[in-house]
């Protein structure tokens, strides 16, 4: 049977009564911007993440930008070369320059030792990414001695070292893009913090620099989480823990089925991973993708080009060969189908297809 890379249908059906009730309430009230659905979601997501404050914004990119601006970060920001391009776009949007560190070949997370070697006098902050739902070595990143702002756009529900992510930095950025562990049906994002001062500043910045009226006080942007998206997010949040466990179950099935395949290299995870994506390193990656497609099995590449090789980031001054681990990994990685309610039979079909391709 066809196995898509992701399937939203089961998630929507499992939560239909809740989001339908919230939509009816929204249409009755007819307050579509910064109303009770957003404030309700902010309070509920704060509880879920162990934080004191959540500020909903338009998308994860703006969450990164606004967090850096709220922290008054100016200068160069160091981040991983293997991540979505929007991590870098958020950094540039905050008026900062950017530089990239290489990755750990076993986890594909930012390598703290390499990051430390790339620090310069003008490096003002570090933005580590919890890639694929796997917490990076945030404790080691903290020891670099610079301000930290975490990109947790793929890590909804994850902890690090047994602690909430907010225990490791003043602010944490999230995305609610539809494919995320906690997604809406469009763009959305949030910044999570324990600081009332930073939360107030973020609310001002997201609303054009206003403070509840029609006068603008600072150079803000227009980036507000939508009330309609909040209806879905509140319904989906109730299922987040269950869905993350379902992702882990499927990831374990893949681990068991692919561990002995010559041509496949598994990515090391900890028990704190929420398994946003299931990524392997594969020989003849592109031919494997074509083979899977011929069997009706979807796949993806997250991400095919490390950021220092994107034309947008040319001014970082880093060129091909400067970040060899990320460059090699980007030629090998492939994301296999992973979503809540993925049938075990479908996961085993994927395993058998990969094994068949390599003659295992």
Describe the structure.
This protein is α/β, with parallel strands linked by helices and 360 residues long. It folds into 2 domains: 9-101 and 108-237, Type I PLP-dependent aspartate aminotransferase-like (Major domain) (Aspartate Aminotransferase, domain 2, 3-Layer(aba) Sandwich); 240-357, Aspartate Aminotransferase, domain 1. It is built from 12 helices and 10 strands. A 4-stranded mixed β-sheet has the order 1-7-6-5, with helices on both faces. A 3-stranded parallel β-sheet has the order 3-2-4. α1 packs across α8 (227-237). The radius of gyration is 20 Å and the shape is globular. The two termini are 21 Å apart.
The CATH topology annotation of the largest domain reads as: Aspartate Aminotransferase, domain 2
Unreliable stretches covering 5 or more consecutive residues: none
Q: Strand order of the main beta sheet, please?
A: 1-7-6-5
Described by the principal axes of the CA atoms, the overall outline is: globular
Distance between the termini: 21 Å
Order of helices and strands: HHEHEHEHEHEEEHHHEEHHEH
Count every helix, treating DSSP H or I runs of 4 or more residues as helices.
Answer: 12
The major beta sheet can be summarized as: 4 strands, mixed
Give the strand content: 5-15%
Q: Would you report the number of β strands?
A: 10
Q: Calculate Rg over CA atoms.
A: 20 Å
Determine and state the CATH class of the largest domain.
Answer: Alpha Beta
Question: What's the rounded overall pLDDT mean?
Answer: 98
CATH superfamily of the largest domain: Type I PLP-dependent aspartate aminotransferase-like (Major domain)
Which structural class should the secondary elements be placed in?
A: alpha/beta
Q: Which range best describes the helical content: under 10%, 10-25%, 25-40%, 40-55%, 55-70% or over 70%?
A: 25-40%
* Number of separate domains: 2
Q: What's the CATH architecture of the largest domain?
A: 3-Layer(aba) Sandwich
